[in-house]
Specification:
Elements: E1 14-17, H1 19-22, H2 28-32, H3 35-40, E2 45-48, H4 82-94, E3 98-103, E4 107-109, H5 114-117, E5 140-142, H6 148-165, E6 169-172, H7 180-190, E7 197-200, E8 213-215, H8 217-227, H9 234-246, E9 252-255, H10 260-266, H11 269-273, H12 277-286, E10 290-294, H13 321-333, E11 345-348, E12 350-351, E13 357-364, E14 367-374, E15 380-385, E16 391-395, E17 400-404, E18 407-412, E19 417-422
Helix pairs in contact: 6-7
């Protein structure tokens, strides 16, 4: 990695906010009423999905995609005004949280002023017509970063939000479709304003030449396949080895059981993981990486949130709010689970059922977390054996003291998990 990750991210979790679906009004004013609740739940970083006006030309659905940006320096009037956004950011900061904006650099809406005023900023076909990035993304026009003026204009637009509203970073949509030289230039320029946090929607190691965090898409896909019995926990080991040998040790990986793409196209975590939804959420907090919560997960909301139309989240008194709060406290209070090089080592624990039981320890100094998961719909009795287990612990979710020796027998119900935190 070329750049320094902000210190305030070292133990953080992240929460993705779908403004359109968050409240009946689908605006910043309504969302602000949730901020204290999110703080109380232990949220650290708030990621706002794109807040910009949405293109009308070639729009998809009734409301269009938030990733079809009509104006990079304006607020979607459905969401509110500059003043309301400013109040939202100030309130987030007052509560001790940070906020990052979703940034769409690969393409614009077809009615973005750049189409007419600066057509040289786009890719063109052999007839000189501006083109879409691909045959499916018909609602957007493809920007060209080999054109220096595109680089200059986009960095200028990003600076606007840091200088005017003091945001804390960016989540960058389809970051790998934009040349790395742009991201390096952008980060070099913007980090002069303040230390920013940069999240890439991408999974290739080279993206970390500019970014602090990337998506663990493959880990998420493995979780789904294990839930469907298409693969087993052996495959986690292969993926972990790939990460260790290919990604910089100081980079962060983002773990998740849902996000706006998964919810919109592949269903809710309950449709993807079934009765294992909470189990995989706990796993996402214990593996190396920064865990993500998507809008509505604390409500156990079991309906997909579309990207192009309006559907209100039904909060239902937040039945899983205490569950996620408990996970956030676990993450924050245990340095073994912190992010990147700030976290602890990872040691696999051998068990007599290596197809369905996934067990490991995370250790940093005197802090140790032992995590044991039954990733199946069957009750399993097994032995776990490793010297690293030895110690006195709090059984985190049972809220009870206990001890482990180097060889222990367990009986776990379907999808049961045990998290032991050193005392």
């Amino acid at each position: 990695m070329t750049f320094q990750t902000p210190e305030w991210t070292k133990s953080s979790n992240i929460y993705e906010v779908n403004i359109r679906q968050f409240t009946p009004g689908g605006n910043l004013l309504g969302f602000r009423h949730h901020l204290q609740r999110l703080k109380d739940m232990g949220v650290d970083i708030i990621w706002l999905m794109p807040i910009f006006p949405i293109g009308e030309v070639n729009r998809k659905g009734s409301l269009g995609s938030a990733y079809s940006v009509k104006d990079y320096k304006a607020i979607n009037p459905d969401f509110g005004t500059y003043d309301e956004f400013d109040k939202t950011v100030k309130e987030i900061h007052k509560l001790g949280m940070h906020v990052i904006l979703d940034w769409v650099a690969n393409h614009t809406a077809w009615d973005n002023p750049w189409i007419k005023n600066a057509p040289h900023r786009y890719h063109h076909d052999e007839n000189g017509n501006i083109v879409a990035p691909n045959s499916d993304w018909t609602d957007v026009a493809h920007l060209n970063y080999e054109e220096p003026d595109t680089v200059k204009a986009m960095i200028d637009a990003m600076k606007f939000w840091v200088e005017k509203f003091d945001i804390d970073g960016f989540r960058c949509d389809m970051a790998g479709l934009v040349p790395n030289h742009f991201w390096i230039d952008a980060r070099r320029e913007l980090d002069r304003l303040k230390p920013l946090f940069w999240l890439a929607e991408w999974e290739k190691p080279e993206i970390h030449e500019a970014f602090d965090m990337s998506y663990c898409w493959e880990m998420h896909n493995l979780m789904k396949k294990i839930a469907r019995k298409e693969q087993n926990v052996y495959d986690f080991d292969h993926y972990r080895n790939y990460e260790i040998f290919n990604f910089p040790p100081e980079c962060y990986r983002m773990t998740f059981t849902s996000n706006h793409d998964e919810s919109a196209w592949n269903g809710t975590e309950y449709q993807r993981f079934g009765d294992g939804a909470k189990t995989f959420a706990v796993l996402s907090y214990c593996l190396p990486g920064m865990p993500l919560i998507y809008s509505g997960q604390e409500s156990a909301y079991n309906n997909s949130l579309p990207l192009f139309d309006k559907v209100d989240i039904q909060w239902n008194d937040y039945p899983l709010e205490s569950f996620y709060k408990r996970l956030n406290v676990l993450k924050t209070n245990n340095s073994a689970l912190w992010n990147g090089i700030h976290g602890g080592s990872f040691t696999k624990i051998m068990t007599t059922d290596n197809c369905n039981i996934y067990a490991f320890a995370r250790v940093k100094g005197s802090n140790k977390v032992v995590a044991i998961f039954n990733l199946s719909d069957q009750q399993i009795e097994f032995w776990a054996e490793s010297e690293i287990m030895c110690g006195n612990y709090e059984n985190w979710f049972a809220n009870a003291p206990g001890s482990l020796s180097s060889r222990e027998q367990f009986l776990l119900k379907p999808w049961e998990y045990r998290i032991y935190v050193s005392i």
